[in-house]
Each structure stands twice: as C-alpha cells, then as structure tokens.
C-alpha cells in the first residue's frame, strides 16, 4: 500500500502539526517517506491518531444506552427524516424488557412478527375500568384529570366530570365492591344527557363535556363498547404497538394518557417498586402529550401526565419520547429525561431549545448544526456529549392491513374482553323508574371536620399536621378529616425533611382550591410560587434573613427571595431538583441587577449537579454561592457570619 504525498500533507494538517503540535506516535508513523510501501495497519493507526487530535469539540468516552438509563427516560429531537424513527426501532430491538409503542403513523407494524400490533379498530378498551387494586374513587380522579387535560378543559369541567363519574360508579355499585360489570363511556354520556342541571355555569360544563365525550364515542364506538377490555395487567408483560393513525388528536391523547396513568396507578397499587427497568413506553410526536402550551395554562395547573413522568422511574417504567419541535415540548419532559439525542433539526428555535437543555457549549453547537442524516449528538446525564451514528433499520416492504391481519389474527383472538353491560340500578335510573339520589351534596360535599381542616390549610399552608390535629377533639378525628380530603382528591401529602423543621404538609389540589373558593367561599391566596414544599422554603428562608436583621421579600425582580444587605442585593433561588432552568435563573438574577445569587438546594446531590452545570456555563463563580436547606434550620447561623460568607462559592 502506498501513501501519497498529498495524504501526508492532509494528515499533518489534521493533526495540528502545522500549528506547532507534535506527538511522538505521529512523528514515528509519519517517518515513512511519501511513496514508501506501508502496511494498512500503519495507515489505520496513523489516521486514528490524527483524528484524535484534530479540532473536535467532544470527548472520546464511549457511551452505552443501557436499560437502567432508559428507566431515567430518554428524549430524541430531530427534523422529519433525520433518523428519529430508525433510532426508536433500534432501541425497541435492543431493549430486553417489554415495551409499549404508541404509533401515530404506522411506523412500527414492520415489527409485527415479533410483537403484538393493535390497530385502532382491533382495540378493546374501557378507560372507566379501574386497574386491578386501584380504588374507584382514586380512578375517578385520575380519569377526570386525564380526560380534561387531553381535551384542553379547565378545572371547572374537571370537577364536573369527577362528580359524574362518582355518580356513575355508585349506580354500578362499585363502592360496595370492585367487580364487573364496569360502566363504559357510553353510559357516562347517557348519564350526562339525562341529567337535569341548574344554573348556566353547570349547564355549560355539561354541554362542553358532552361535546368531547360524544365525539369520542362516535369515533371509538367499536373500541369502548365493552365492560372490560384489554387490561393493563394483561398486556404489561408483552411487547405491544398501539396504532392510533386515523383518529383525531384529542382521542389519541386521551387513550395514550389513560394508558400511561393506568400503568402507573397499577404499579403503585401493587407496590411494584424496585431498582432497574421493568417496562418502556415509546412515544413519537411527543408534543401531543407533553405540550408546553398545556403546561403553561395556569388555570389548569401542571398536567397530571407531567407529574407521572417524574414518578414513573420509581416503578421501573422507562419513557422514550421523540419529536421534531423541542420548543413545543414541556419543560418537565426536557428536565426529566436523563439521556438526550440531538439529530439534525429544522430552524434555530428548535435547535436552541434542545441545545440549551443539553447545555452544549458554542463549539459543540457549531458542530451539531452541521449534523447529517443518521448522525446525532448523545448526552447521558451531565456527562460530556458525544457524536454518534445511527445504524440503519431494514423495515423491508410495507405491511398492508390484510397482511397484518394474517400475521396477528391468532394473537388478537387470544385477548380477553367482556361486552358492555348495565346494572339494574343504572337501567332503572335512566328509564326514570327511580328518583335521582340526592347525589350533588353527598358527592361534592365533605364533612364538617374536613371543612374545618380545609379552611385551616388555606389559612396557614405551612402548618404541620401535628399542630392541625390539635384543633380537633382527638388526633384520630383530625386524621380522619385528613384522610377524607386525600380520598376526595382535595389535598396531597408532602414532607419537609431536615430537622428541626421536619413535618408533613398538606398541599391543595386544583379540586381542593376550587371547592374552597366555590363551595366554602374562601379566597385562596398563594404566598410564593410552585408546590407547597417550594413555597415553605421560600417563606422559611425569607423569615430566616429577617430574623438575622436583613430586609427580605418574596418574588421581587423574580427572585424566590430578594435580600437587601446594606446595599448588596442578594437573590436566593430555591432549587428542588437538578435542572437546566436553575442555570437560567442564576443568569436572569445577575442580569437583573443582583450582586450575588445563593442557590439553596434540597440535597447535596442536587447541589453537586447544579455546580457541574455551572462549570459548563460562563457564569461569574465569585457571584454565586450554594447552600443546603439545613443551613437555614439553625438560627445560630446569624448575622455575625453573614457578611463573611455571602461571597463564598
């Protein structure tokens, strides 16, 4: 084999030799004269060595996307035709655990010989049937959350749906025992149609919900006409492709979100916690479910499906999400995906959204802008990103509906479903043979003790449960009132951990806030932002500074806590998780005129993660300090140490 003189010059240029860089191995390999016969192994070694030292903005670490990484979720962003679907097919072929793929464009039916493929018209599914072990009251809350999120309805409609589902479950005697028959969406539509409503607001809720529900039942007439369809329990151990091509977007979103929620609630009810990966969801066109526009709807609150993403990992549920437009994905999904693939993207806005979530520096961004089809930049956690190639996937020829039926017919026949049925009680009610129950007050009202506790939560959201129980004749009665509020979905429990402020708090849900405002005529105000734990620390840190003699306020110039320290302006940011947005908060606070930013963290792991992100960004380290929450639990850390510690990093 002969080495041409031009090749040697190119190697010299690529190695950086022309700019003065010298490497002994390169020198030795380049010792061969141009035109001299050399072995191919020498050429390969030379090429590898030179490529290693050319201008390359990434590390040389090898990265493996293992099953354990999938349990921490994965995000793929790239334009149409960039290789997203191919990458997802490859991951499906390599994952060793069962998976469910939500297929909106018939992209995965080529896998049909190895997996169960369920086209829309072959699916039997009853979203009103609670998963095994899940109480009817709990599932009624989940159903109402998912239905209204998928159809872009707000809290008033959500509360209305919840009340009607509870009514329906009572007519099916499900609160006496969870067994068949279960009501379907058709019975829910019938119940709403027969209801006599009072007032324009209630009538508006009913008409709006009926409009969405009626459309679902028309399009899904062959899918929802069952008492028990293919259950979560039956399919979790199988590789399944759900085909949703050809149905409207709201219905696609609804079914996908119910399946997400059903798996989570089933795992939770069965207490199937554990380490490692148990099951994976694949979702292309992720913005349909994880829409930033729905996330920004203040009136509807954080979507339930976004909350699920953060909680699914504990039960070994992995999530792989792909989309063309990163800017339209929720901040939650970008923050809660540990592994990210950036493929060629269309437009600076989409590129910038995912590059920011990966914290790519300018050289890496410049490289990534020139990615070709089949190329990607991969980042795992906060490690250095690496460029990778996506191997092609041979899909073979297209699979027609007829061929799919031949391949899948026996699998479809094995699936179990039971036909739609009504109870005598429901039938008599619809026919008017019995008087309607006085369900409204019973279903929407709560006991006097629960009302007392709800009012106390509104008045003082940061009071511990122990203190709240002291207002009752016994702690048992207080606990009963708390359980009633939890069961009705009005509050959720949250924990504050560091001593000496360790306590349990009760956080109002949307239903609880609406009930307090509409039924109890209480004005619900939020002192701070975020969840109750975040707001607790905002207020606690503000009080801590005031007790040490400084002037502090909430939300001034967008800081969680703004402190005036004799002319030095300090911004305190409360960090509940290791997220790229904490870096944005630091930048914004410094840009808005604060001299110093304190990042207060829930744990040392979160602190270390944000510190790593700081090192990857051009931020003035002398103006940023980190503190753990427990620092503010000791009042002896007072003003004597403040001036000396404020500029620590």
From TrEMBL:
PROSITE patterns attached to this UniProt entry: SIGMA54_INTERACT_1
InterPro entries registered for this protein in UniProt: P-loop_NTPase, Sigma_54_int_dom_ATP-bd_1, T4SS_component
Transmembrane feature ranges: none
Protein name, per record: ATP-binding protein
Lineage, opening ranks: Archaea, Methanobacteriati, Methanobacteriota, Stenosarchaea group, Halobacteria
């Amino acid at each position: 084999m002969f080495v041409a003189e031009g090749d040697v010059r190119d190697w010299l240029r690529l190695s950086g030799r022309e700019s003065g860089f010298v490497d002994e191995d390169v020198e030795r390999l380049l010792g061969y004269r141009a035109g001299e016969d050399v072995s191919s192994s020498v050429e390969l070694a030379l090429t590898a060595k030179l490529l290693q030292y050319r201008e390359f903005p990434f590390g040389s670490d090898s990265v493996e996307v293992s099953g354990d990484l999938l349990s921490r979720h994965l995000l793929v962003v790239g334009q149409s035709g960039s290789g997203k679907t191919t990458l997802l097919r490859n991951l499906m072929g390599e994952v060793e655990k069962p998976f469910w793929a939500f297929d909106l464009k018939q992209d995965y039916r080529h896998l049909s010989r190895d997996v169960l493929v369920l086209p829309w018209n072959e699916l039997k599914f009853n979203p009103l049937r609670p998963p095994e072990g899940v109480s009817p009251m709990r599932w009624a809350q989940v159903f109402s959350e998912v239905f209204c999120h998928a159809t872009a309805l707000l809290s008033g409609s959500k509360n209305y749906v919840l009340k009607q589902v509870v009514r329906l479950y009572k007519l099916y005697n499900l609160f006496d025992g969870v067994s068949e028959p279960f009501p379907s969406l058709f019975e829910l539509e019938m119940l709403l149609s027969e209801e006599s409503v009072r007032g324009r607001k209630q009538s508006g809720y009913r008409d709006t919900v009926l409009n969405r529900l009626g459309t679902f039942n028309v399009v899904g007439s062959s899918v929802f006409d069952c008492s028990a369809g293919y259950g979560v329990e039956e399919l979790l151990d199988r590789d399944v492709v759900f085909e949703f091509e050809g149905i409207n977007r709201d219905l696609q979103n609804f079914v996908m979100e119910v399946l997400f929620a059903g798996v989570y609630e089933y795992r939770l009810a069965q207490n199937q916690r554990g380490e490692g990966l148990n099951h994976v969801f694949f979702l292309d066109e992720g913005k349909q479910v994880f829409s930033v526009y729905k996330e920004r709807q203040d009136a509807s609150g954080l979507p339930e499906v976004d909350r699920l993403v953060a909680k699914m990992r504990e039960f070994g549920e992995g999530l792989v999400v792909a989309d063309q437009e990163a800017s339209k994905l929720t901040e939650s999904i970008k923050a809660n995906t540990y592994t990210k693939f950036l493929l060629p993207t269309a437009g600076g806005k989409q590129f910038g959204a995912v590059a920011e979530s990966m914290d790519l520096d300018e050289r890496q961004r410049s490289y990534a802008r020139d990615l070709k089809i089949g190329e990607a930049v991969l980042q795992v956690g906060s490690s250095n990103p690496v460029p990778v190639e996506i191997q092609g996937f041979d899909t073979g020829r297209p699979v027609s509906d007829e061929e799919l039926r031949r391949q899948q017919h026996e699998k479809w026949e094995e699936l179990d479903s039971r036909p739609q049925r009504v109870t005598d009680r429901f039938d008599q009610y619809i026919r008017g043979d019995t008087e309607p129950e006085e369900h409204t007050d019973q279903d929407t009202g709560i006991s006097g003790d629960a009302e007392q506790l709800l009012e106390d939560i509104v008045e003082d959201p940061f009071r511990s449960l122990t203190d709240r129980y002291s207002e009752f004749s016994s702690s048992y009665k207080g606990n009963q009132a708390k359980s009633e509020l939890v069961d009705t979905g009005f509050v959720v429990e949250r924990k504050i951990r560091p001593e000496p402020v360790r306590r349990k708090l009760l956080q109002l849900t949307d239903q609880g806030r609406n009930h307090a405002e509409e039924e109890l005529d209480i004005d619900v105000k939020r002192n701070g932002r975020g969840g109750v734990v975040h707001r607790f620390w905002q207020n606690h840190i503000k009080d801590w500074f005031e007790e040490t003699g400084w002037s502090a306020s909430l939300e001034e110039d967008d800081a969680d806590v703004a402190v005036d320290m004799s002319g030095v302006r300090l911004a305190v940011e409360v960090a509940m998780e290791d997220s790229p947005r904490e870096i944005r908060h630091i930048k914004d606070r410094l840009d808005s005129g604060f001299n110093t930013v304190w990042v207060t963290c829930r744990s040392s792991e979160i602190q270390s993660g944000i510190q790593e992100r700081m090192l990857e960004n051009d931020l003035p380290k002398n103006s940023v300090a980190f503190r753990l929450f427990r620092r503010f639990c000791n009042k002896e850390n007072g003003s004597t140490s403040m001036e000396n510690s404020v500029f620590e990093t």
